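User: Show me a protein chain along with its predicted structure.
Assistant: Here is one chain, sequence first, then structure tokens.
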Amino acid sequence: MLREYNIYRSESPEVRGLIREAFFLLMRYRAATLFIKFKYLTRSLKHSGREEKPSRVNSQSRRMAGQVGDMVARVGRHTPWKSPCLAQVLAVQHMLAARSIPGVFYLGVRKDKAPQPGTPEMGAHAWIKCGNEIINGADRHEAYTVVSSWSWR
């Protein structure tokens, strides 16, 4: 914990602000995913039952979106609670919307052909795209079939 604090202190004020914002949003959305129905979490977003094409974004917005996605993933690895992909994607979406950067949030499922004993047969994963780039949740997303997507402008 001390190591993380020393790293935090060595960052610029802008990066420390992003870290704080990511930390508190991850806390908020982790609690929300445990206690609030999913439809209420996404009610402010435009829902599409299929894979939606992401909007074009300029290079400055894409760079900021990448920074936000990386920061949320980085902070998510050090929270004292679990920060699964859904909580991370909701935090990234919140941060991008606050900066007027459009994107698309995808929810996918996969069915294991031979699941391990004691594990569910089905898995789910969430990821987020800004432009044509996946900025959070890119790991293993190819193994999932998109069942729904949500966008914002």
